[in-house]
Amino acid sequence: MFGIYGVNGMLFQGRLEEMPAVRPVSRRRPVESIGTAGAELGDAAANPPLMPDHAGAAAYRRILHIDDERGPLVHARQIMQPEVITVRAADDVVRAWRTLAGHRIHQAPVIDGGGSLVGIVSERDLLTALNLDHDEVRDALSRRVADVMTSPVLAADPLTDIRRIARVMLEREVDGVPIVDAQEALVGFVSRGDLLRAIITDPPLSLWR
Q: What is the pLDDT at residue 9?
């Protein structure tokens, strides 16, 4: 199950097949770039333990008509990073950059003052509003994260099959998907790196059979 969240709350909730009718996510508003610098930082490694299954998984499998012969079903909650580094929409771009750099990540979900998911921001977004000199901020426009973030943002349910998350990343050209539970609370994050680790730790690659 997927959802799309913006500054006004949830805009969509449903299956992957229902999303084409929803407008694609985009940067909230254009920002004039003052330069580019530096290379993107790599994802921090994370290998959270598997979480116990419950009745919802069986129901989700029935809805999606998943064939057991395709290989074991792996849910987002099994590979996601449960300790999510976030930035606030009201943060200035310098503070957001230092948060990403300090945690060695290149993107982070954006939350509002109440803790609700409203967007996602990447190093690429922040570099439209600041310049670096030897990895340190040299100068910056007077911009907040809300000015440069991508919103609305696509998110997934913890029981979403990671094959579907991989498909969404490819089709929508996103590098990560926040994981939001039934109460609309941000509970994890799945990056491309998390998906790759799931593949290489399954020796026969039966995950994609």
A: 80
Domains annotated for the chain, with CATH where assigned, are 2-20+55-208 (3.10.580.10)
**Mean pLDDT of the 39-49 span:** 44
C-alpha pair distances (Å), 9 with each of 116, 142, 192? 8, 26, 26
pLDDT in tens, 55-82: 555 554 455 444 444 555 789 999 999 9
The number of beta carbons lying within 10 Å of the beta carbon of residue 114 is: 6
Instruction: Identify the CA nearest to 158 among candidates 185, 183, 176, 180.
Output: 180
CB burial readout 41-80, b (16+ within 10 A) else e: eebeebeeeeeeeeeebeebeeebeeeeeebebbbbbbbb
For the stretch 161-200, pLDDT in tens is 999 999 999 988 888 999 999 999 999 999 999 999 888 8
